[in-house]
Amino acid sequence: MPEGPSIVLLREAAARFKGKTVRGVSGNSTLDLACLEGRRVRAVRSWGKHFLLEFSHVSLRIHLMMFGSWRIDERKETPARVSLRFDSGELNFYTCSVKLIDQPLDEVYDWRTDVMSDLWDPRLARRRLKSMPDVLVCDALLDQTLFSGVGNIIKNEVLFRIRVHPANPVGDLPPRKLADLVKQAREYSFDFLRWKRGFELKKHWQVHTRRTCPRCGGPVSKVYMGTTHRRTFFCPVCQVDYRAGMPRPPAKKRTLARGPVQRGGARPVR
């Protein structure tokens, strides 16, 4: 599923259509999109995983879901869900969810929750996290009302970066780890964007789809976890389990080729 940084790249690529008039609409969407013909694009925006084309009285929302894609000035062999033709170019979307929004976008979206937005509010995210102490951190990071734009890759990498086990309830995290969670949800998203621009995203993955932990050299666990039941990759040694009452073994040292590494007291999920 394209995550927030990928939608920012789409927004940037489609920015040239701002101020342009839609000359034709086609595709296999069940929505009647004829109302867009003859309308001028007032703004090209994004919120989390939503790509938005704003017109005078309506906005087009595209959600690429799990397997969606887009093309500018070219087409795939498969039929487009939505194709917008302009005087000098076209914008095509495939395998996506399409919606028309009648209300002003500022009334529909809370831009403070978008981790890629200039209006991102970390204090708001932290307050909302504190109000849901029983929610697992792996679910909290995927909650688009908290961290719009964060997807499964970012979730896994953020939790590894801050050394937090994904099965921790939010309420069991120490205050500094809660702060790290909020901070890295945004910082890693911008790292993701930079690596994506450089066509080198996958080589920077530390734990997502990996088999060996780059810190301790131990095996990476893969579990379908939380209410979202999404693939969760984590190191059961390096990512600490703070759950109340969980026994923690004494710290041990493991000697690798690059020198001794401290093993933490995390436990894998059974």
TrEMBL record:
| Pfam families in UniProt | Fapy_DNA_glyco (PF01149), H2TH (PF06831)
Q: Which keywords does this Swiss-Prot/TrEMBL entry list? A: DNA damage, DNA repair, DNA-binding, Glycosidase, Hydrolase, Lyase, Metal-binding, Multifunctional enzyme, Zinc, Zinc-finger
Catalysed reaction equations from the record? Hydrolysis of DNA containing ring-opened 7-methylguanine residues, releasing 2,6-diamino-4-hydroxy-5-(N-methyl)formamidopyrimidine
Q: Where is the Formamidopyrimidine-DNA glycosylase catalytic domain?
A: 2-101
Q: Where is the FPG-type domain?
A: 206-240
PROSITE patterns per the record?
A: FPG_CAT, ZF_FPG_2
The answer on whether this UniProt entry bears the keyword DNA repair reads: yes
Q: Where is this region: Disordered?
A: 248-270
Matches recorded under Gene3D superfamilies:
1.10.8.50, MutM-like, N-terminal
Q: Which family does it belong to?
A: Belongs to the FPG family.
Protein name, as recorded? DNA-formamidopyrimidine glycosylase family protein
Lineage start: Bacteria, Pseudomonadati, Pseudomonadota, Gammaproteobacteria, Lysobacterales
